[in-house]
């Protein structure tokens, strides 16, 4: 609704094209995320830490909520459309960078159930999206779009911080094994 109203007044086709930066962010970050996951798996597994594939991408994922907040508020205040489009790229980048890491981690830790574990993470993501699509318009009616996205981004940030703290706690408590040269099967 923000892109279709002043000062932007964009058509539906142009609004659809505005999501190309998000898709490009997911595309490029999936490649980067996969490489970071492999690097982390090798580096941290040799230290005896099985969450290694999550480590390199863990901090990049925090870009998502920040990008979402900047995206919506720049639209709300009518800032030049280049700024929100750049933020869409970074939001997509944050999403795509973590998915290969999660898949790699689940494949290492849940070898026999890797397919089911990966499917359940995707299912949770789709359920979360469905809830947001259902609840978002109701909340947006009560408060403006900027605060709606900010609330969702803050919820996302709390979840990310929880996962980061869990991973870091596991890393600090993991027994350090610097003699381990064998890598886990992939």
**Percentage of residues assigned to helices:** over 70%
Class from helix and strand fractions: mainly alpha
H and E order: HHHHHHH
Strand content: under 5%
Unreliable spans: none
Number of helices: 7
Q: For the report, how would you describe the main beta sheet?
A: none
Summarize this structure as a short list of keywords or feature phrases.
7 helices
Describe the protein's architecture and organization.
- With 186 residues, this protein is an all-alpha fold.
- 73% of the residues lie in helices and 0% in strands.
- It contains 7 helices and no strands.
- It has helices at 12-17, 20-45, 55-58, 63-76, 82-109, 114-142, 145-173.
- Helix 4 (63-76) runs antiparallel to helix 7.
- The termini are far apart.
- The model has no long low-confidence stretch (mean pLDDT 83).
